[in-house]
């Protein structure tokens, strides 16, 4: 496992380095523009929680002379990225009448402290930044918003639950449940965690607690499982949903269908529990890739909607965003945006694919069905509609169980969360399986629609148990003449698997409890 972790960390280093080079470059343009006098830009030190120095920059509207106050937007940086990250968007916001303060979160780059992973000091830092901005910029204490990508999104949500001054939030590619993000199905998301670990090591100063969490996470030490879960729940906005609702901030959530760091499902559950003004957006792409072009000043729907959200809920502009359907989806296949009044309206009808018969597979070998590679696969899907593929007829049935639907005579618009219900019998007390749903064309080539892992421990060998598993939420159009196929195997490079050597898994469909895949479909 140690060699595997080193390889994953090496890959993470490469991905992070490329991102940092690109992001460092984007910060130069707004600095040059600021010198023309269109907006004011200055770099400052802000005293965070406990006196920790936070490196920050402030962009103010052109002509701001203290005669009036402006709405304030605070932008915490993403994991591993420098404070230049938001400079382009900060200037755009300042040009429309906002004071914008971006700051490097504690533990990263030049800011002091250690990486706490959105712990209490990070939440307190956000409030200290607001305090500083209200005291040192022409900002309005009654009109405070927060936004961010990735790490900045999670911190913004947590801060809104703890600071009543925050009236609006745009959380882009963030998390609601940290454990459900990187440990869904009781399975470690190896590539995602390795990327976070590698990026934190390269660009910051991980705390001793964080280093121990990663060590225990990768070591698969079950004696530490509850401790890790408790650590994650403390850092999850979902934990503070009652406080967030009581404070009443207007919450906009945006994510990519293929987000391999923070999969889409956990945002869905969180959105449904919000009681204040809210909006949920999903687009093709991986973690933060849908909004990435906006950091370079290119046209970007995510950032456009972010600006509209603040314009309405901080400035009071009647721009119509509050009257639009609050759930906005863009299919991975084609077409424009689809609006829905709520999540349950996304896929109101379902079709079940029967998983009849009994199938036994061996473990420890990758069958060829995989969820892809972090970032790369979902970016290809986003830009070229090329998701991970597999030849379904050629998948070895020794290692993979396969079921297929009938051939569809009309297009099937999959919308929402596919669910698997089956009965499993293992030959060992622990095991891991990964379920994949494929769109299968006439030649048997399968394009990945969704997937999800599941791990069990403490089961009695030879004794059947029921399994209900949610695959990652998606929006995908299956063409007429194609089939859907469910494939289950036991190894995927995205995840850490827990199959003892020589273990087998049997999937059955008892008469009293038949097995099936339930596929949510859009009304046509």
Please bin the fraction of helical residues: 25-40%
Strand content: 25-35%
Task: Tell me the CATH architecture of the largest domain.
Answer: 3-Layer(aba) Sandwich
Extract low-pLDDT stretches: 1-37
Report the major sheet.
Answer: 10 strands, mixed
Instruction: Estimate the global geometry from the Cα principal axes.
Output: globular
Number of folding domains? 2
Top-tier CATH class of the largest domain = Alpha Beta
SS content category: alpha+beta
Whole-angstrom Rg = 23 Å
Strand order of the largest sheet: 1-2-4-3-5-6-7-8-9-10
User: What is the CA-CA span between the terminal residues?
Assistant: 48 Å
The name CATH uses for the topology of the largest domain is Rossmann fold
**Number of helical regions:** 14
Q: Would you report the number of β strands?
A: 23
Overall average pLDDT: 93
Domain Xaa-Pro dipeptidyl-peptidase C-terminal: 307-517
Organism: Streptomyces albiflavescens
Region (Disordered): 502-524
Keywords: Hydrolase, Signal
């Amino acid at each position: 496992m140690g060699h595997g972790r080193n390889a994953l960390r090496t890959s993470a280093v490469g991905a992070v380095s490329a991102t940092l080079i690109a992001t460092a470059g984007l910060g130069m343009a707004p600095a040059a523009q600021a010198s023309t006098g269109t907006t004011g830009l200055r770099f400052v030190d802000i005293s965070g929680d406990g006196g920790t120095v936070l490196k920050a920059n402030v962009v103010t509207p052109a002509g701001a002379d203290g005669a009036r106050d402006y709405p304030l937007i605070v932008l915490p940086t993403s994991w591993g990225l420098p404070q230049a990250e938001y400079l382009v968007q900060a200037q755009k916001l300042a040009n429309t009448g906002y004071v914008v303060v971006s700051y490097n979160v504690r533990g990263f780059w030049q800011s002091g402290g250690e990486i706490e992973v959105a712990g209490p000091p990070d939440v307190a830092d956000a409030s200290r930044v607001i305090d500083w901005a209200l005291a040192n910029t022409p900002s309005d204490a009654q009109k405070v918003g927060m936004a961010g990508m990735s790490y900045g999104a999670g911190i913004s949500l947590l801060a809104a639950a703890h600071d009543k001054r925050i009236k609006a939030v745009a959380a882009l590619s963030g998390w609601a449940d940290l454990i459900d993000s990187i440990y869904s199905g009781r399975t470690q998301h190896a590539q995602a965690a390795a990327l976070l670990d590698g990026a934190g090591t390269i660009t910051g100063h991980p705390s001793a607690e964080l280093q121990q969490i990663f060590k225990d996470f990768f070591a698969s030490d079950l004696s530490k499982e509850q401790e890790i879960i408790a650590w994650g729940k403390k850092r999850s906005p979902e934990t503070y949903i009652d406080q967030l609702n009581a404070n009443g901030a207007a919450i906009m959530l945006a994510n990519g269908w293929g987000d391999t760091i923070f999969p889409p499902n956990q945002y869905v559950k969180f959105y449904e529990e919000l009681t204040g003004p809210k909006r949920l957006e999903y687009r093709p792409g991986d973690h933060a890739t849908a909004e990435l072009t906006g950091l370079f000043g290119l046209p970007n729907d995510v950032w456009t909607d972010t600006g509209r959200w603040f314009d309405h809920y901080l400035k009071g502009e009647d721009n119509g965003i509050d009257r639009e359907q609050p759930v906005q989806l863009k299919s991975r296949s084609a077409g424009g945006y689809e609006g829905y009044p709520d999540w349950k309206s996304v896929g109101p009808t379902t079709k079940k694919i029967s998983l009849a018969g009994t199938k036994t597979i061996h473990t420890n070998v990758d069958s060829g069905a995989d969820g892809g590679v972090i970032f790369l696969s979902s970016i290809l899907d986003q830009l070229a509609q090329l998701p991970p593929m597999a030849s379904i007829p050629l998948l070895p049935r020794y290692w993979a169980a396969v079921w297929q639907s009938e051939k569809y005579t009309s297009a099937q618009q999959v919308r929402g969360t596919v669910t698997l219900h089956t009965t499993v019998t293992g030959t060992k007390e622990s095991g891991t399986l990964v379920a994949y749903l494929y769109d299968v064309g006439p030649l048997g080539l399968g394009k990945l629609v969704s997937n999800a892992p599941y791990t069990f421990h403490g089961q009695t060998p030879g004794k059947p148990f029921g399994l209900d598993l949610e695959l990652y939420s998606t929006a995908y159009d299956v063409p007429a003449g194609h089939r859907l196929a469910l494939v289950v195997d036991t190894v995927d490079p995205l995840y850490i698997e827990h199959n003892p050597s020589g273990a087998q898994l049997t999937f059955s469909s008892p008469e009293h409890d038949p097995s099936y895949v339930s596929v949510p479909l859009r009304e046509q």
